[in-house]
Design brief:
single chain; 627 residues; alpha+beta; seven-stranded mixed beta sheet; 21 helices
């Protein structure tokens, strides 16, 4: 509990104690009035102050004005009637402040998830100078500098590990509780906590462009993008508040005037009391407080799970998504080429991979890297001579003096070597050793472990269509789509073709149905911007993709997409529940008060009770872990 909340709780307790004590003390007249006034000021001085500032700034019709005018009016009525019953005026303010305390607690609870993200902001970076570590501001570290991160410290900047191994705690970034291992050559993102070994990192980005800065910027700006529901509440309050103030004035004046005209007693006190009660009842606190709180809690709960939503408007749009379109490489697959099979080889698999890795040792192409990785041993380049690259076809070389050819079917045809075609999806490397066909190696992009489950979860979450767009060949694309259970697949696409496909899919959406696109590369940025909702992979995704997206998945886990949709639908469901509940109770109580069927205590329930219930309902938006 914060200091402000503790102070408020103390004021509530003091006021309540004074009220209870006054029920038993035989005090009357002015001393009684002074004691009640003291209790009133203890609990309501801040409301009176805010109401005064609002009037001074030209913002008269707000909840503070309603509470001030209603409670002061109740005091005035008690004085006028000489009843000495000031309980209602103080009780209204007391219960209102209890409601405000509930609201403050709820906001604080949801803000903790945001604050946890703020803890990833690094305070310093270690630079080695003359054999000693010197702490500097992360903003002062240039790209290409070498920084040292010791156990227990936060990684201040994005970079590549050039020395050391360690275990990283990435929970603040990705929501993943399991630590990740990191070694020399691995990319590392800022915001992680180094848990074990000392790491030397060569920075690849300035602090302002680093992952941690991007995340903090996204979270800090998320509240500025309002949803349609929040806009509705703001517009509703601007019209509703003056309307009920004028209605209360009419209720206080018109019935007594009409009664006087009809020759009846005016009953000014009764109608004034009703008007004041009407004002208390009309206060739209439940709506004004609970709706933004619901969105805030939803965004906070999602961020704790590693799903960063840039604003409540995107949360609302996400709840209406019926079509999810995926880029393939880096989104549904790892974007890492690996040897998946060796076919039709008279040689041992290890021997064929050895020939392939040595022949390709001079190339930095991802295919070559995957062959060298599959070989798994240190490459002795002295064994390789006469390397010749045939553009668009492959490599010719001599390994231990033996001619080796590694490439596609065009290379085999050029060399006049009969080869066996492969029907497996992926990149096919045909091998010839000493002029004879030696089989072929299949290299393919690896599907992420949870991609298939992610597609299944999306369908369960109410998504009616999943689509995959890729620049890969049709055979590869169809194979991956079939394996994952994707509804539609489009292959051989250029970046501009992807935009056209998304445009076509958008035109097929009906009613309020929305389309989300999920991608990670620079070439995905235009499509992310064009879709109703753009979702980017944040851990290894490009800066352009993260900038263009509306939602960022910090752990690159496609399973999180279904969770994000469930979070949004739960949050919007809570928003609609609060709107309907608050308005139904509010208008019912206003009608009862106007007819004289409800008193000030009913007004207290209508105002504070509904607000407390709505706030408690809004807090449920924080509970997203089990969705």
């Amino acid at each position: 509990m914060t200091k402000k909340q503790k102070k408020m709780l103390t004021r509530i307790i003091v006021c309540a104690v004074i009220l209870v004590a006054l029920q038993f003390l035989p005090i009357t007249g002015i001393p009684r009035f002074i004691l009640y006034l003291a209790a009133y000021l203890v609990i309501g001085y801040d409301i009176l102050k805010k109401a005064g500032k609002g009037i001074g700034n030209g913002r008269v019709f707000d909840e503070n004005f309603l509470m001030a005018i209603a409670t002061i009016g109740a005091f005035a009525l008690a004085i006028y009637e000489k009843s000495g019953d000031y309980n209602e005026a103080i009780a209204v303010m007391l219960f209102y402040q209890i409601g405000e305390l509930f609201q403050s607690y709820a906001v604080g609870k949801s803000r903790k998830n945001i604050s946890a993200l703020m803890d990833i902001r690094p305070d310093y970076a270690n630079i080695e100078v003359d054999g000693k570590l010197e702490k500097v501001d992360p903003d002062e570290v240039a790209v290409g500098s070498v920084i040292v991160v010791q156990p227990g410290e936060k990684v201040p900047l994005d970079g590549v590990i050039i020395d050391g191994t360690s275990t990283l705690n990435t929970s603040a970034l990705t929501g993943e509780s399991l630590p990740r291992d990191a070694k020399t050559g691995d990319e590392i993102i800022s915001g992680c906590i180094n848990m074990t070994g000392v790491l030397k990192i060569r920075t690849t980005k300035e602090f302002g462009e680093s992952t941690v800065s991007k995340i903090l910027e996204l979270v800090e700006n998320s509240s500025s993008r309002k949803s349609r529901s929040e806009d509705f509440i703001a517009k509703f309050a601007r019209i509703y508040t003056p309307a009920v103030c004028y209605s209360a004035l009419a209720l206080a004046v018109l019935p007594p005037v009409v009664r006087l005209v009809m020759g009846l007693t005016s009953e000014w006190e009764q109608w004034l009391y009703r008007a004041l009660t009407f004002l208390v009842t009309s206060c739209p606190c439940a709506l004004v407080v609970s709706i933004p709180l619901s969105f805030f809690a939803g965004i906070g709960g999602a961020s704790k799970e590693g799903v960063l939503i840039k604003g409540s408007n995107y949360l609302e749009t996400l709840s209406q998504v019926k079509t999810v379109v995926f880029d393939k490489t880096g989104t549904l697959t790892k974007g890492v080429f690996e040897v998946s099979a060796v076919h039709h080889s008279p040689l041992e698999q290890e021997k064929l991979l050895e020939y392939a890795a040595l022949a390709e040792c001079a190339s930095s192409h991802p295919i070559s890297k995957s062959l060298q990785k599959a070989y798994g041993k240190e490459i002795d380049r002295s064994r390789v001579t006469d390397i010749e690259e045939i553009s668009g076809r492959g490599i010719l070389a001599k390994v231990d003096g033996i001619p080796v050819a590694a490439g596609n079917h065009k290379l085999m045809e050029q060399l006049g070597i009969d080869f066996i075609d492969c029907h497996s999806p992926g990149t096919i490397i045909h091998m010839a050793v000493d002029g004879k066909y030696a089989g072929h190696i299949v290299i393919s992009d690896v599907v992420k472990p949870n991609s298939k489950k992610a597609i299944e979860q999306l369908h369960r979450a109410g998504v009616t269509k999943t689509v995959m767009l890729t620049g890969d060949a049709k055979k590869v694309a169809d194979s991956v789509a079939k394996e994952l259970g994707v509804d539609e697949v489009y292959s051989d696409l250029l970046p501009a073709d992807k935009v056209e496909k998304v445009e076509a899919l958008l035109s097929q959406q009906s009613g309020k149905a929305k389309l989300a696109f999920v991608g990670d590369g620079i070439n995905d940025a235009p499509v992310l911007s064009r879709a109703d909702i753009g979702i980017a992979m944040g851990a290894m995704g490009s800066d352009a993709a993260i900038e263009a997206a509306d939602i960022v998945l910090m752990d690159d886990e496609p399973l999180q997409i279904a969770k994000a949709i469930k979070i949004s639908r739960k949050c919007i469901g809570i928003v609609y529940q609060n709107i309907v509940f608050a308005l139904m109770v509010k208008f019912a109580c206003l009608a009862l008060v106007a007819l004289g069927a409800a008193n000030m205590w009913a007004a207290i329930f209508a105002d504070v009770g509904v607000m407390v219930l709505a706030v408690l309902n809004a807090i449920r938006a924080l509970r997203v872990h089990d969705l």
